[in-house]
Amino acid sequence: MREVQNATLNRLERMESRMTNRRWTTAVSFAIAVLAGAWGAQNTSADTPPTFKRVELQRHDLSAKDREAVTARAEFQPGGAAPRHTHPGEEFGYVLEGDFVLEIDGQPPKAMKPGDSFFIPAGTVHAAKNPGKSAAAVLSTYIIEKGKPLATPAK
Fold first, then answer.
1. Domain match, 15 and 44 both
2. Backbone angles phi, psi at 65, to 5 degrees
3. Does 66 share its domain with 42?
4. Distances (CA, A) of 77 to 116, 132, 134, 151
5. Are 130 and 85 within one domain?
6. 84-96 burial, b for 16+ CB within 10 Å, e for fewer?
7. Smallest Cα–Cα separation from 53: which of 92, 32, 14, 81?
């Protein structure tokens, strides 16, 4: 009888050991999968070019107290967008290439094409998107409060 009990205990210990090993293997495999997924997501976003980019071309102090002028080129890839935001001053824009839609709060969306110009008052919430199949570019001049960020996301 004692031999049967010992054999049964040995068998149970081996089964328990295998189950513990399976749990550890499962936990480690899960952790590796999560880390690999996170790493892959980071690399994917790093390899993906931005769909909207603003390139500052020049910045100069103005004779008007606490004001500066900034000239920038905004580039929209097909499907790209500049989400809702504001500027701490006025924006004067000119469409260089491609088509895009300008959305200014309180106004209907405006379809813009090369040669069109626009004006956005200081602090006005607006957004832009390129619904087309080719890139779009806008040249803008901003007259802004000195020392403030050029753009601030809208709430």
1. yes
2. -55, 135
3. no
4. 19, 9, 7, 19
5. yes
6. ebbbbbebebebe
7. 81
Residues 78-104 pLDDT 10s: 999 999 999 999 999 999 999 999 999
Q: Helix, strand or coil for residue 113?
A: coil
For the chain, what is the domain count?
2
Beta pairing class for 89-97 and 117-120: antiparallel
CA atoms of 108 and 98, how far apart (whole Å): 20
Comparing CA positions, the residue from 94, 81, 96, 80 lying closest to residue 126 is 81
Q: Using the CB atoms, write b or e for 127-136: b if 16+ within 10 Å.
A: bbbbebeeeb
DSSP letter string over 48-77?
Answer: SPPSEEEEEEEEEE-SSTTEEEEEEEEEE-
| Region of residue 123 (phi > 0: left; psi between -120 and 50: alpha; otherwise: beta) | left
∠ CA 45-46-49, rounded to 5°? 85
- Model confidence at 8, pLDDT cuts 50, 70, 90, reads low
